[in-house]
């Protein structure tokens, strides 16, 4: 998702910082986690025995009443014996029925006959529901149907707070969608709401709306059916690839569409664009950036990960979100982040932040997904860095460097980038600019863009359509580069300390060392003394270099995200 930015938030967090400093309270107070946090964020025993194979979801929103009604059929594989099944659906929504669907073979099927359903008993524990299931053979494929209804939580400030969005377009016509990253898809449909278990065989979403509106969702339109008895239409969309729960999203409004083919690394990629009717011309013009983005990201990251499902960019009633194969766009058809350059260098106003950032997530978030949102840096740090790589593709290395280093004033170093595991807790929003600058620093240390690019492509190949622990990504980068970055990741992801390079010059002697670092942290750094550029490897001990070249100026290559301080008397 896009990082949240507003002047209000900047000033507000600054005041909090002052207040907490005055009161001498530690920054980053530990949140007290509840049983509900654990139910949501952990693979509980009631989740562990089954693997999600597919979701087939049907939903009918009622715009006037702001309610929804639907069913989700969960196709699952039994991986071990289990007697209770945890299904997540957040308050105030209500589950009406949970049934085990039987077929002639005892496996999954599409029979709707009432006789083929066994109603299961269930009870509620907050946002988690527990159904009692009969003994099911290990390795069998089963089908569980959950029907539900109610008033789904409404999003007040999407995409950041999440929920259903019941709004109007500029002509006063209904415009609906959902944003639920972090909060979780169980805010609007019943599922196993944990990032580590994606439906391996994809999902379908059927949306029934008044026939004057159009419903768009992920993947490809499989069917459109007019229900003449009640003037509604049912749009059925199909996703073949694994998909994150929070990415399955309906968009409902007065949409129009156009298509283009993109000649990509894996052949012809279908690109479909959806905008509100009155925005068609503006959208057609702004969305010309899509092929440029795809070309750049395929170069750095490898083939677009969802050729089967296509690429879509869809106008949304919020700023934007990485909804897989149905990217949400709400940046007002202008460049920058709502017209602003986050880097302050001018480069960020040369392209559309939402087209670039949210599409970058197709590789990092949608194809490679972190098992726990504590490791959300795997999504946001790489995608933040995709902005730098796009700037580099379009305007050259120096422009990319300027963009990346220009975002450093946004870094707060308030709490670590990695959050708490097992309780659905993200880390600091520093996962965006600080994470990007960490990757930029790693790229400098690797000092070979072909190696760096191979690592990015290798990550996308190794964890193509898979979930991953952040630690595995860290180890992969060290292994493939031949450089042990473990202390670098510990320093930048697990502490808020930024290493300080202290130096002094006396006569012909240059001395330097690292402070404000964790034990064992050291990186090679490119410095310039006088007119001479060279690599040095500072440690926690003073290193002395003698030579006439040291008497001039001293600087550290700005592409390394460290602080530099001159000290006297060493
Ligand atoms: Zn993002």
Strand count, sense and closure of the main sheet? 8 strands, mixed
So what's the overall shape? globular
* Count of distinct strands: 29
**Mean pLDDT, rounded to whole units?**
93
- Estimate the strand proportion: 25-35%
Q: Structural class, from helix and strand content?
A: alpha+beta
Radius of gyration: 26 Å
User: Helical segment tally?
Assistant: 12
Poorly predicted ranges: 7-28, 106-111
Bound molecules: zinc ion
User: Strands across the major sheet, in which order?
Assistant: 5-4-8-2-1-11-14-13
Helix content: 10-25%
Q: Note the gap between the termini.
A: 47 Å
Describe, in short, the structure shown:
The chain is of the alpha+beta class and 570 residues long.
General description of the model:
With about 575 residues, the chain is an alpha+beta fold. About 25% of the residues lie in helices and about 30% in strands. It is built from 12 helices and 29 strands. The protein starts with 6 loop residues before the first helix and ends with a strand. It binds zinc ion. Zinc ion binds near residues 1 and 361.
């Amino acid at each position: 998702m896009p990082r949240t930015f507003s002047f209000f938030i900047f000033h507000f967090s600054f005041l909090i910082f002052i207040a907490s400093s005055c009161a001498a309270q530690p920054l980053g107070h530990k949140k007290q986690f509840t049983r509900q946090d654990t139910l949501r964020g952990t693979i509980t025993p009631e989740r562990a025995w089954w693997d999600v194979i597919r979701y087939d979801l049907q939903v009918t929103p009622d715009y006037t009443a702001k309610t929804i009604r639907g069913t989700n059929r969960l196709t699952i594989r039994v991986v071990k014996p289990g007697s209770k099944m945890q299904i997540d659906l957040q308050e105030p929504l209500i589950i009406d029925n949970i049934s085990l669907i039987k077929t002639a073979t005892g496996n999954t099927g599409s029979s709707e006959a009432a006789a083929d359903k066994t109603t299961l008993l269930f009870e509620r524990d907050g946002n988690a529901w527990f159904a009692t299931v009969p003994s099911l053979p290990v390795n069998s494929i089963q089908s569980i149907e959950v029907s539900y209804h109610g008033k789904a939580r409404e999003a007040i400030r999407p995409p950041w707070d999440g929920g259903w969005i019941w709004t109007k377009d500029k002509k006063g016509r209904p415009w609906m969608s959902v944003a639920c990253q972090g909060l979780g898809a169980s805010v609007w449909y019943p599922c196993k709401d944990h990032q580590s278990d994606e439906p391996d065989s994809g999902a379908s979403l059927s949306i029934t709306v008044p026939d004057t509106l159009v419903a768009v969702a992920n993947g490809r339109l499989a069917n459109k059916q007019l229900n003449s008895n009640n003037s509604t239409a049912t749009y059925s969309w199909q996703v073949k690839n694994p998909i994150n729960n929070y990415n399955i999203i309906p968009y409902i409004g007065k949409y129009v569409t156009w298509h283009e083919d993109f000649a990509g690394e894996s052949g012809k990629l279908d690109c479909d664009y959806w905008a509100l009717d009155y925005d068609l011309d503006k959208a057609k013009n702004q969305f010309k950036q899509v092929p440029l983005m795809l070309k750049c990201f395929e170069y750095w990251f490898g083939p677009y990960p969802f050729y089967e499902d296509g690429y879509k960019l869809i106008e949304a009633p919020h700023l934007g979100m990485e909804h897989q194969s149905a990217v949400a766009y709400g940046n007002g058809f202008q460049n920058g982040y709502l017209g602003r350059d986050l880097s302050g260098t001018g480069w960020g106003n040369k392209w559309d932040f939402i087209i670039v950032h949210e599409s970058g997530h197709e590789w990092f978030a949608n194809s490679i997904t972190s098992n726990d949102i504590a490791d959300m840096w795997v999504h946001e740090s790489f995608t933040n860095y995709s902005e730098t790589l796009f700037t580099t593709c379009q305007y050259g290395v120096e422009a990319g460097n300027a963009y990346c280093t220009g975002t450093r004033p946004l870094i707060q170093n308030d709490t670590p980038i990695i959050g708490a595991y097992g309780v659905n807790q993200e880390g600091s929003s520093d996962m965006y600019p600080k994470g990007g600058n960490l990757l930029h620093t790693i790229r400098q240390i690797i000092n070979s863009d072909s190696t760096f690019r191979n690592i990015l492509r290798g990550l996308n190949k190794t964890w193509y359509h898979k979930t991953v622990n952040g630690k595995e990504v860290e180890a992969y980068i060290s292994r493939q580069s031949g450089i042990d970055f473990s202390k670098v990741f510990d320093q930048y992801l697990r502490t808020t300390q930024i290493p300080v390079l202290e130096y002094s010059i006396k006569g012909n002697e240059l001395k330097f060392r690292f402070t404000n670092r964790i034990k064992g942290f050291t990186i090679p750094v490119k410095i310039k003394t006088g007119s001479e550029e060279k690599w040095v490897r500072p440690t926690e001990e003073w290193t002395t270099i003698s030579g006439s070249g040291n008497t001039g100026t001293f600087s550290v290559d700005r592409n390394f995200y460290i602080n530099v301080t001159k000290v006297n008397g060493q």
